[in-house]
Amino acid sequence: MKTALEPFLHEGTFVFACVQDPDVARSLHPVASILESEGVTVVVPEAVALREGLEILFRAAWISLRMPSDLDAVGLTAAFSAALANEGVACNVVAGAFHDHIFVPVDAVGTALHVLKGLTFD
């Protein structure tokens, strides 16, 4: 039986930004964050970044895949990222414990949704 990805588009525009202080990062209530040697990369609503005067590194639409995913799964990320790449859509993927979350350029969200809705997996 084939399983659809069931992409869900979150409302609004989200941005990637970087802050130096992990406490500041937590205070922004990011939808995702990662600590790197250069600072803490945060994904926050664009309005939060603008209010806080953060340098916006990437403006994105946030698409979650409702299809449950396993952190041990092999090939799922490669399959949908390759399909998006074939259409010229960049994607930044964040894996949650239960679902994958894809951040694509705001101006490419229509194409991304079309591609993702067309993909199925065994």
Structure description:
With 122 residues, the chain is of the alpha+beta class. Helix content is 27%, strand content 35%. The protein has 4 helices and 9 strands, in the order βββαββαβαββαβ. The strands form 2 sheets. Strands 2, 3, 4, 5, 6, 7 and 8 form a 7-stranded antiparallel sheet that branches. Strands 1-9 form a two-stranded antiparallel ribbon. A hairpin with a 2-residue loop joins strand 4 (32-36) and strand 5. The model has no long low-confidence stretch (mean pLDDT 93).
Give a short account of the largest sheet: 7 strands, antiparallel
* Class from helix and strand fractions: alpha+beta
Counting DSSP E segments of at least 2 residues, the number of strands comes to 9
Strand content: 35-45%
Mean pLDDT over the residues: 93
* Shape, principal axes of CA atoms: globular
In the predicted model, the low-confidence regions spanning at least 5 consecutive residues are none
Helix share of residues? 25-40%
Order of helices and strands: EEEHEEHEHEEHE
Radius of gyration over C-alpha positions, nearest whole angstrom: 15 Å
Count of runs of 4 or more consecutive helical residues: 4
What is the end-to-end distance? 6 Å
